[in-house]
Amino acid sequence: MDEVQGPLASANIALPWLIFCRRQDWLQRLNENYSTATFCVRPFTALSYMMTGGISRTFPIPGLLYRATFPVDLALSRFFPWLCASFFTLTLTRR
């Protein structure tokens, strides 16, 4: 089997989504140390992540175009998070 290399070789982008949005058994385990009833989820990055090619060292679009579309991108991800958001930040309160 070939070895996987690179900055995201061991990343699993689905884990936060599974833990906080889909799997209630994982959320119950977190409830031992954190208040999961009041956690805050802020979705972001709908189009800009796709436009820039994701996580890469090159930037395939002009910076001015990226900056111009970012407010629209943020609004789309906030108004339609289940459709448009690629990432989210989550705030937990320690018990």
Gyration radius from CA atoms, angstroms = 16 Å
Walk across the major sheet and give the strand order.
Answer: 1-2
Taking the sheet with the most strands, its summary is: 2 strands, antiparallel
Q: Give the strand content.
A: 15-25%
- The termini sit apart by 44 Å
N-to-C order of helices and strands? HHEHHHE
Average pLDDT confidence is 75
Query: What is the count of structural domains?
Result: 1
Write a short abstract of this structure.
Helices cover 44% and strands 20% of the residues. By secondary structure, it is of the alpha+beta class.
Describe the structure in your own words.
- The structure is a single chain.
- With 95 residues, the chain is α+β, with helices and mostly antiparallel strands.
- It has one domain.
- Strands 1-2 form a two-stranded antiparallel ribbon.
- The N and C termini lie far apart (44 Å).
Which features does this protein show?
two-stranded antiparallel ribbon, 95 residues, 44% helix, alpha+beta, 5 helices
List the topology elements.
Elements: H1 14-22, H2 24-30, E1 34-44, H3 47-51, H4 63-79, H5 81-84, E2 87-94
Antiparallel strand pairs: 1-2
Helix pairs in contact: 1-2
